[in-house]
Amino acid sequence: MRKLFVPDYFLKFRCKCGECRNCCCVGWKVTISYLEYCHLLGFLCKKSMRSKIDAALCVLDKPTEESYALIKRDYLGNCPLRDRTDGKCLLHKECGEMALPAVCRLYPRNILFDALKEGSCANSCEAVLELLYADDNKVKMMTAEMFDSAYFYKSQEKISKNEDNSEEEKAIFLQNKAVEILEDRTKPLAKRFSILGNYLINNGYAPKLISICENKTFAKINVFIDILELCQEALNYSVNFDKYYKVFDNITMPNDFENYTFLYKRYLILKQEFENSFENWQVKLEKTMINHIFYERFPADVVVFSGFSQLCIVYALTKFCLIFYQPKSNNDFVDCVAGLNRCFEHSSLLQLLDAAIKRDNNENINFLSALVNF
Questions:
Q1: Are 288 and 132 in contact (CB under 8 A)?
Q2: Listing from the earlier edge strand, what are the strands of the sheet with 57-59?
Q3: What does the pLDDT look like over 101-120, one tens digit per residue?
Q4: N or C: lower Cβ tally within 10 Å for the chain?
Q5: What gap in Å lies between CA 261 and CA 207, rounded to an integer?
Q6: If 0-12 CB within 10 Å is exposed, 13-18 middle and 19+ buried, where does residue 69 land?
Q7: What single-letter DSSP state applies at residue 122?
Q8: What global pTM score does this model have?
Q9: What whole-number distance in Å separates Cα of residue 294 and Cα of residue 108?
Q10: Alpha helices in the chain (DSSP H)
């Protein structure tokens, strides 16, 4: 057993199984490692299950040891091992939990005993968001003990081998600082992002180039157009995530400035309606972003300011799409946020959007502040 830090909801998580409105195996490419592929090919089971397993697996065109085969989807977009009668996993029901690939057994948990020694759960899972949104309390971290065998194949375990703990301590300090700033409810949530960005710049976590555009201002209509273009980039990239078109369907790209202005005015009306309908929307999105920080282990795996830029993108696009999506209930709110995070947390979309911001010379605190303030 090992100790790690987890959010307070972590141990309460239970899979909803067939009761999910949007099953976790739908809408994103699920891949397994070479060892897991061999494990499933050689697994002793009934003949009927063997044919289902064989039909479900497809070796990738460019396989790697960690991403070797794809679990194909059926014509409805579901995992072929999903029982159509109750929505549950046939492999799990017939062969038990340990027959499952690690991604199926572990999801939505992200547990890595590396520098930060943390565990969290993905915002792409509706059950996780329902736990997060069950109250308005701040997300708290607690110590938990985890059995290795419950979650990992040994080949996938990642242990920090860095004998110098200074970098680990720096990452932990910076993560704690980011959480402290973003949980300061005396200020609007968008303002907290600006404070965090300025903190990173003032403490040397941003390249000198970031400061070039510090005095540049951004007209709201131009920022609106920039967000629309980021949404279009996401839509173009996410052709495999057909279920998420619903999130973007209500956004059409106009061809001229006059139509942009009309759409912007429509956005302002919808924004007011959204904020009136969900008075605690800032609390919901604050907890979503704090959980995203833990899940993505910010800032352990990224250049720090790029990681901050990606945090801003997640927050800005989540709120923007919620406003156009116009959720009518808490379930609608959850479904929209979870759907977006299947793009954000399980693909390279954030890196692509971050690159788009760099390409347009917009990776500076003024633009990112304008982005989150929208």
A1: yes
A2: 31-32, 69-71, 57-59
A3: 988 888 898 876 555 677 88
A4: N
A5: 35
A6: buried
A7: -
A8: 0.87
A9: 13
A10: 34-41, 47-56, 90-95, 102-106, 126-132, 166-182, 189-202, 220-237, 245-248, 257-277, 281-296, 304-325, 330-345, 349-359, 365-372
Least confident of 80-89, 127-136, 181-190, 264-273: 80-89
What single-letter amino acid sits at 37? Y
| Contact partners, residue 176, CB within 8 Å, separation at least 6 | none
CA separation for the pair 281, 333 (Å, rounded): 9
Q: Region 273-282: what's the mean pLDDT?
A: 95
Cα–Cα distance, 299 to 74 (Å, whole number): 37
- Tokens for 267? 């956005």
A 10 A CB-CB count for 207 gives 14
User: Hey, what are 373's tokens?
Assistant: 């303030």
pLDDT 10s digits, 160-211: 444 456 777 788 889 999 999 999 999 999 999 999 999 998 998 876 545 4
DSSP secondary structure, 233-293, as one string: HHHHHTTT-GGGHHHHTT----SSHHHHHHHHHHHHHHHHHHHHH-TTHHHHHHHHHHHHH
332 in helix, strand or coil? helix
Instruction: Record the tokens describing residue 282, joined without a space.
Output: 């800032």
